[in-house]
Design goal:
Order of helices and strands: EEHEEEEHHEEEEEHEHEEEHEHEHEEE
Distance between the termini: 43 Å
Helix content: 10-25%
Structural class: alpha+beta
Number of helices: 8
Largest sheet: 11 strands, mixed
Radius of gyration: 22 Å
Shape: globular
CATH architecture of one domain: 3-Layer(aba) Sandwich
């Protein structure tokens, strides 16, 4: 069952990792590496941290503090990456790096022993303890929390059974605590904020003392206005809008950096939907959308959503029910899902007489859980930190139905030359790097 706050739009919540799909292996990565100062493998800007007092960020999705620390779109992925920390990080090359954890090793009886940084602090100055980590995890994943013991304020002892260590890079497991009076959860990242975002109002994020980072001014505008951010001389624009990117490339002060194929649109159809897969013609689908796209491609480890049996989630016996409605549904705010659904109907993927329907997030969640529609076009993360945990969020009917990846899409970073150091993580999150 999908939790109420995991709306379907929202398969982005089944967050990704560079480590690829498959059953969690319970293996411990090598000891925390000390990256050389000249390591630029995941950098998209390499200026000095103190090269400017403020960096202006332009985003084209809304940012909602109520979602923190788990991002539901590209804009939240950027903002939350600055504000909140996980136990570890996984960079763009799949290397496991320290975050709140200082080090890790195989402990007694095969358990993982993880030692936290002694200087880890919440925004309010309180030290981050192992009990704080456990409390944050318990609120979001009680089964994971049951595998954790706290022998010391700075030490976690973890039973690795059925776990991937990379799971601890999942933004859902970032450590936070409630703020007095509500608002932004208090985090431990290199930035803190109490502001808001959306509309014409900018979100200001202040650097934690000692990081040597500039302040951030984050503006949010519709994707149709992304080109205006270039005219306004934004320092960093995250967008998928081709017109804004084409315009930015004409400006010598900007560099266009593709951030990798991070989302896949999939067609999910319950058993009995009479889906004609031979009619899909996947090679024609990228032309149906307004962003850079390609026919869906699997990584070396495959696409996690198409191999649920690897997680032991065998299809359950179908219970008698009415035939599904002859329509393809999608989240109404997602224009690319809309256009894909319309193209599929035009290709007669459900035969003649099928229709499309855009649903609000809550209605789509209900419809998806019920499996009462002929098919669903959804945007999902291409990879997951823990494929089996992600699969367990799905309704039981998915294992009986058909799962067809349609297209892959990606975001670009339009970066003003000379910016302070910017790196890219496993999930495509861009973050400023402290000195």
């Amino acid at each position: 069952m999908i939790r109420p706050h995991h709306q379907i739009s929202l398969f982005g919540l089944l967050v990704a990792a560079a480590c690829g799909g498959g059953v969690p292996r319970g293996e411990l990565p090598p000891p925390a590496p000390a990256l050389a100062a000249g390591d630029t493998a995941c950098l998209i800007a390499a200026g000095r941290p103190a090269s400017r007092d403020t960096v202006t960020i332009a985003l084209t999705d809304p940012v909602d503090p109520a979602h923190a620390p788990l991002p539901r779109n590209v804009a939240e992925r950027f903002v939350f990456a600055q504000l909140y920390e996980t136990l570890i990080r996984v960079d763009c090359q799949g290397r496991v790096l320290p975050a709140l954890a200082r080090s890790w090793e195989q402990g007694p009886e095969g358990r993982w022993t993880v030692t936290l940084r002694s200087d880890a602090r919440f925004w309010d100055g309180a030290p981050v303890t192992a009990r704080d980590m456990l409390a944050a995890w318990r609120a979001r994943d009680s089964s994971l929390a049951r595998a954790v013991m706290v022998p010391d304020d700075r030490v976690l002892s973890i039973d690795p059974s059925g776990l991937s260590f990379q799971r601890f890079a999942d933004p859902a497991l970032a450590v936070t605590k409630s703020a007095p009076g509500g608002g932004w959860p208090i985090g431990t990242g290199h930035y803190w904020t109490t502001g808001s975002a959306g509309g014409a109002e900018a979100l200001w994020a202040s650097p934690v003392p000692g990081t040597g980072l500039p302040a951030l001014k984050v503006t949010v505008a519709p994707a149709s206005e992304a080109r205006d951010a270039v005219d306004a001389n934004a320092d960093l624009l995250l967008t998928s809008d081709p017109a804004a990117l084409d315009y930015g490339r004409t400006r010598s002060e900007y560099q266009d950096v593709p951030l990798g194929w991070d989302h896949t649109y999939v067609l999910l159809a319950p058993d009995g939907s009479s889906l004609e897969l031979s009619a899909l013609r996947l090679e024609s689908l990228p032309q149906a959308v307004h962003v850079e796209a390609r026919p869906a491609q699997a990584d070396d480890g495959g696409f996690w959503l198409t191999d649920l049996k690897r997680c032991g989630l065998a299809a359950e016996a179908a219970s008698p029910r009415a035939p599904p409605r002859r329509r393809i549904v999608y989240q109404q705010a997602d224009r690319d899902a809309r256009d894909l659904a319309a193209r599929l109907v035009g290709l007669a993927a459900l035969g003649r007489g099928a229709v499309v329907a855009g649903l609000a997030p809550a209605a789509l969640e209900t419809a998806f859980r019920s499996g009462g529609e002929a098919a669903y076009v959804l945007r999902v993360r291409r990879r997951t930190v823990d494929p089996c945990a992600a699969a367990r969020e799905l309704p039981a009917w998915v294992a009986r139905g058909s799962i067809t990846p349609l297209i892959d899409t990606r975001t670009h970073a339009l970066v003003r030359r000379g910016l302070p150091r910017l790196s890219v993580d496993w999930d495509g999150a861009v973050r400023l790097v402290p000195r």
